[in-house]
Amino acid sequence: MADLQLSLAMSTNPRSAPVLSGRIKPESITFHATDIHPSEIFWRQLHFGDFDVSEMSMSSFLMLTAAGNRDWVGLPVFTSRRFFHKNIWVRKDSGIKTPADLRGKRVGVPEYQQTAALWTRGVLQHEFGVAPHEIEWWMERTEQMSHGGAVGFKPPAGVTVNRIPAEKSIGTMLVDGEIDATLFYLQDNNLVDRSRVTLEDHPDKLHQLFPDPSAEGRRYFAKTGLYPINHGMVIRRSIVEQHPWVVLNIYNAFRLAKENWLKGVHAAAQAHLDTGLLSPEMGAVLKRDPYAYGVIGARRELDTITRYSHEQGLTPRVLGLDELFAHATLDV
Q1: Is the pLDDT at 282 greater than 70, yes or no?
Q2: pTM value?
């Protein structure tokens, strides 16, 4: 029987690169892959449905599902995780010394609803007591180029969200003193995001809120056990309904690619432990799998992001994981 031919869009990362390149392929499926920036993938999928299988913003997927859209089925393959809050940038003359000082400030964000912003607002609220409505938000993406424009985003009640004029960007407004900070910064050249200023080139005006971002990431993880999920994956529902077997075949291909990568990480960790280049504590961390796939493996992060989405007024209720992911993957 000939392979099922599916289009795939995602950005390269070491855990999934073998699937994107075709070195590891799902059984009985041939992917026709496109490697593009996530901002573009999500915009194209949410507005036009260009690809059969793709990387997907978790926040946008939650909002889309809550609004009743049934076009996509989630796959618990989590292509991107990061401690987003540790990379907040602020102006030196803004008076912002601690997260609590963000209250009442003008803060940029590429898109209010994006997953990075969702997680960071959740951390600000639950770790530092700063609620979303206490900040004046400035959003860079236009309605036409935003992900929110496709999922019906409206600013939550009590939250002020301004749009940055098309001739400006987060970067220019931050350097020019028109905003005080940015929650998240995307400088990558893509069709959706327009900031091009390199923030590190302005040490006289700008610095990161956390002087040691890595230390803050370690503190947060040690306290919460959370490694925030940014992107998952989706497949067109009509394909799943016609070929239910594709779900686990695709999941297993990505799982195998990630596990092969993790073996290399573990081997390197052991080698560095043996030579004394790593402490036993650091070696123990590196031997874990911080990129767990599966609904069960990522349950803590999934429960947290669905709760944060509802708390922040992006979804009208806390979504059940069985509403998001293919039923065949709920027990993996």
Answers
A1: no
A2: 0.95
